[in-house]
Amino acid sequence: MSVRSSQFTASQRTEASFLSEFFDEIDAATKRSQHFLIREQRPENYWVGELIVDSTLVSDTICYHHWNGKVDEVWQRKAINHILSMQLTDGGWNIYCNGPPEVNATIKAYLALKLAGVPETDQRMLRAREVALNLGGIPRMNTFSKLYLALLGLFPWKYVPTIPCEVILIGKWFHVNFHEMSNWTRSMLVPLSIINHYKPTRQLKNPINLDELYPEGFHERDLELRRDPQMITWRNFFIWLDKLHKFAEWFAQHRLHPFRKRALQRSEAWMLERFEGSHGLAAIFPAMLNSLIALKALGYPDDHPQAVRAEKELKNLERETPTSVRIEPCLSPVWDTAITCICLRESGLDENHPALVKATDWLITKEIRFRGDWYYKNPIDVEPSGWVFEHENKWNPDVDDTAMVLMALRLTKTSDPKYRDECFQRGLKWLLTFQCRDGGWAAFDKDCTKSIMEKVPFADHNAMLDPECADITARILELLGYEGFPPDHPQIVKAIDYLKSQQESDGSWYGRWGVNYIYGTWQVLRGLHAIGLSMNESYLQKARGWLESVQNPDGGWGERCNTYDDPVFKGQGPSTASQTAWAVMGLCTFGDPDSNSLIRGIEYLIATQNSDGSWTEHETTGTGFPKVFYLKYDMYRNTWPLLALASYRKLLKNHRWSSASPLLPVQPFQAQQQSPCQCPQLATRSSSALQ
Fold first, then answer.
1. Measured between alpha carbons, how far is 145 from 343 in angstroms, rounded to an integer?
2. Domains along the chain?
3. Residue 267, φ and ψ in degrees, nearest 5
């Protein structure tokens, strides 16, 4: 103890002792987390966690194998075990952890079980049937689900919304064209349009039907596309256009359609071209499965190299155990590696640590120096760059992954610093060209926002567009802030205006790629803080107030996917490690380490950490397509808490042991009687320090 510190009062020394112990707790938790993550690094020098999803991918794969006529009974038993393990007590299946049953997931699971030979009289099937009927049955399934049923002869093609392959021929000259659809929709629809043309229904070896899943029996009136009540709407126009497409299909089947042959050839070539440099079409399960079916519809034999390759890439998404098999929608090594590098470096791991150097070298090899599909919406003369989510997907680098990788590269060292710097600058220039007209950034494309596209009948997967969003925009602001871009830079002014326009009335922000308002609000606060805005602005203080208002009694934060269906549930849910970390980092931007909410959040993270340095998390906190498809990123539970601890540790250290004011007395914590400390390890010390 220094001479000056002896002037502290006894109460200040007690508080200083508590702070020292608290800091030690944070330090110990940080080291445990670092050690855990370093052990998790793959021999190939990257990190990747499992993407855990609902049962639909396994159900779809069972249906595909029966359509293809090649069923591995051992594999199928494992797949059925997995599906049954996810059945809810009421008999249905959901699309996110602890969510309600969902019609597509429930009917797909029911069909998979029935194909595998589970009898209709089985109690699990009876309960599933009741749930499916209560949800509206087969008539309420989405277009893609109905198309899969049609392949098995279980739904009439004439009621599947037409996906005309001629759309690929429509250029920019037309308001509604191929490139106005989102990146992932294009990848799913091109093979589906081929399937739509050939309608390759195959008879099942053991024929079944699903007549029992029509609430009022099989009536064609229930299968018609639902019209809007008003006579003149875009949806009604597209429904009329669908009927015209159906009429044109007759001519196409008789080779009288003037553009069909050319459109089919273009679709096949587009698909085959995008197999190259990718682990499957777009490296995502729906496009990969659709493309495999499309190849077979086109007449490719099972032993054709392209069919073999497509089958192999699908197989690579499976995680098989002795008793079950589950399927990931894609793989996430670039995303997970970039986040892990940031967390390790920000938490104090030396930049020369072999794990970081090797990971950085690996990330640099994943830069995409190819002018992919993004160029159609962003035809700017910029040197191609960018990163993707997966291992290989050269046609589709995206903005969010690129921003995350660049934030990692600026913190870490590589075996070739000069090339790293060149890579960074190239990626940054590429990224800046993707700002949309209203100031925000989207995931893959620029200004992919024509709402008319959402009115087409096959747009019910809720992902036709790729609109700019607050979370990605704020992440780019965070990167630019670290790079010294001033708040008055023209692009940043536009981005800030966009973020202000997106704020909800209660102070929160919608999270497009993470669940949900906690994710969006955290990222916006972190981005605006990094760019140098005053966090005393009233709209930012309002966001702080919202975050603090939704903290759970245990000190953590949680939110479920039901907030996408109804915002009334925003900020509500059991506490999770990842969402608590996001909220903690959001509150850290206000520079107040004495915040009771912050302290309780940190204590929650420390208290819930496992002895090996990991955290346990069951809830779904990642978003694919809102209302349709969600993901649990298994790395999130272990990376984001480490970054949150690092953020608070840095804040606490700067305030308590800053060289600028090492002798200032410590201010007492602001105790809130209605929100007592919930952390068993620290509750006693917190209480004594507050007295």
1. 40
2. 16-51+331-454+462-690 (1.50.10.20), 164-197+238-327 (1.50.10.20)
3. -65, -45
- Give the pLDDT confidence of 270-287 residue by residue, as tens digits: 999 999 999 999 999 999
What are the two backbone dihedrals, phi and then psi, of residue 462, each rounded to the nearest 5 degrees? 60, 35
Helices and strands, number each (H, E), in the chain:
23, 5
User: Per the structure block, which two tokens stand in for 376?
Assistant: 């159609």
DSSP codes of every residue in 261-302 = HHHHHHHHHHHHHHHTTBSSGGGSHHHHHHHHHHHHHTT--T
Identify any residues that bridge with 576 across adjacent strands, giving them in sequence order: 557
Which pLDDT tens digit goes with each residue over 517-542?
A: 999 999 999 999 999 999 999 999 99
Transcribe 219-262 into DSSP letters. Answer: -GGGTSPPPPSSSS-HHHHHHHHHHHHHHHHHHHHTT--TTHHH
Please state, in angstroms and as integers, the Cα–Cα distance from residue 398 to each residue in 11, 172, 443, following that order: 54, 21, 6
Here the tokens at position 452 are 């008319």
Alpha-carbon distance 73 to 311, whole Å? 18
**Strand segments (E) across 492-628:** 622-625
Split at pLDDT 50, 70, 90, the class of 161 is: confident
pLDDT tens figures, 196-245: 999 999 989 889 999 999 998 777 766 776 766 777 776 666 665 666 66
Tokens 């006894």 label which residue?
10
Show which residues are catalytic. Answer: 400
User: 433 phi and psi, to 5 degrees?
Assistant: -75, -10
Instruction: Give 334's contacts (C-beta < 8 A, 6+ positions apart).
Output: 46, 363, 366, 387, 388, 389, 390, 391, 401, 405
